Amino acid sequence: MKKRLFILMIITTFMLCQCNVYRKNYKAFTHPIDTNHISIYKKPYVLYKYISADPNEGGGWIVKIKNKQDDFFKVDILEFKFRNIWIKVGDLGLILQNYDSLKIPIYTMPDTSSNIITYVYNSYIGKLYDISKGFALLELYDYDYDESTGHIGEYYVITKGWVEFKHLCDNQYTTCTGLHK
Q1: Which residues contact 39 (CB under 8 A, 6 or more apart)?
Q2: Buried b / exposed e across 91-129, counting CB within 10 Å, b at 16+?
Q3: pLDDT (tens digit, 9 = 90+) per residue, 110-135?
């Protein structure tokens, strides 16, 4: 009896660990930096097809993140009725919203007591690499802008680190404060 109870506890613990932080179905968007095609996969490393950015909006599609395995996020893209497909990390994005030019810390780990890499004072687009404990691991980008022509130049990396959810937006078409939980 004790052996069966112990095995049941081990199995239950394993099952709970598999549910991880993605059980909340966080949202992000595809095509964070450009409108080039991105690959979607039936399962990690098994290519399914390519998708383009939204032609009407010139940006990406909203996805629900369900899980992460290796370098892939398991997502649903509702506009295409794609469920349980996989997208490589870095092909999803979030917006670091900072309309008030606050001093926002970028951490080395998903923890406010970890070292701070730098502070940012503006809004940026971020490529998403991981989610953990109320933080997102982002590579933040900025771009050159020519005010006289209105032309947006090349994107370049500002920094990469962990950002608290409260500073992030999952929809590039809206002004929001914090990720929806």
Answers
A1: 47, 48, 49, 50, 87, 88, 91
A2: bbbbbbbeeeeeebbbbeebeeeeeeeeebeebbbbbbb
A3: 999 999 999 999 999 999 999 999 99
